[in-house]
Each structure stands twice: as structure tokens, then as C-alpha cells.
Amino acid sequence: MKAEGGEDKFNPERKASASIIAKEVVTLDPSILSLLVLDSRGQVLAVERSNRLPESDRMGEDITPKLGIVAKVIWGTATNATALLGRMEFMIGAFKNERIVFIDLQGQDMLLALRMTRSSNPEDVCNKILKTFGNKN
């Protein structure tokens, strides 16, 4: 099945690659509780959860695709200023109990949406991820 632009909507190699990235990212820092790997349309390619995330705090499978679309909309809106400020590498949302961090893996054409502990240092985690996955731009 092809999506608009000719991209394979359910490309198994792309999903496998996203799954590998997700498994590696969730182990890079203890502050990472879970993450989604999204494609350019906001489709969820992979989900990974840390064993540090309590079962009671896990989101249901039914909400995951919706979160992917919301993440893509937020990211897309925020990147409107790139002509003036340069390419956005990551964005941090600070909530009372946790942080949500979006990281552009442009070399992979993927967006990571991380759920992190409030006590984390998201900028250090972002830099670690970008260094590990060799953002080319």
C-alpha cells in the first residue's frame, strides 16, 4: 500500500529500523520513560517503554496513533520559524510531573517523541541521542 508521495505506508524495513532505534534510545538514559518513533506523516513506526515506567502510567494502544498525530502537528507548527532561526533539532515540553521531548532524526527522516522524568536534563539527553544517531544536517 502506497501513501501519498509514493512512500510505502507499511514498509517493514522502516518499521524494523525504527524499532531498533527505539530500543537503543530507551536505554541511553535512565530519565527516558517511553518513546514513539514517528514518520514524516506522524504515523507511529515504533513504541518502546522503559521498565522504569510503572504499568499504571502506561498509555493504552488505542491512544498511541493519536499521540503520533498530535506530536507531528506540534512539531510541524513549531518548525515554521526555521527560515529565521535555522533547523530545529529538538523541542522540550515541561509539565508538572514529566517532560515531553521531540527530537528530529533528520538523517533517518524520523521524529522521536520521548516521555521523560521531570528531573531529567533533556538537553544533555537530546545531544546524546543526536550524537549516537549521527544527525547529518
Largest sheet: 5 strands, antiparallel
In angstroms, what separates the terminal alpha carbons?
30 Å
Instruction: Provide the structure class.
Output: alpha+beta
User: What's the tally of helices?
Assistant: 4
Poorly predicted residue ranges: 1-6
Estimated share of beta-strand residues: 15-25%
Secondary-structure element string: HEEHHEEEH
What would you call the shape?
globular
Helix content: 25-40%
Number of strands: 5
Strand ordering within the main sheet: 2-1-5-4-3
> For the residues shown, what is the average pLDDT?
83
The gyration radius over C-alpha positions equals: 14 Å
Detailed description of the structure:
With 137 residues, the protein is an alpha+beta fold. It is built from four helices and five strands, in the order αββααβββα. A five-stranded antiparallel sheet has the order 2-1-5-4-3, sandwiched between helices. It is globular, with a radius of gyration of 14 Å. Residues 1-6 have low confidence and may be disordered.
Tags for this entry?
137 residues, alpha+beta, 5-stranded antiparallel sheet, 4 helices, 5 strands, disordered N terminus
In short:
33% of the residues lie in helices and 25% in strands. The chain contains 4 helices and 5 strands.
Strand-helix topology:
Layout: H1 12-26, E1 32-38, E2 44-49, H2 64-78, H3 82-85, E3 90-94, E4 98-105, E5 110-117, H4 122-132
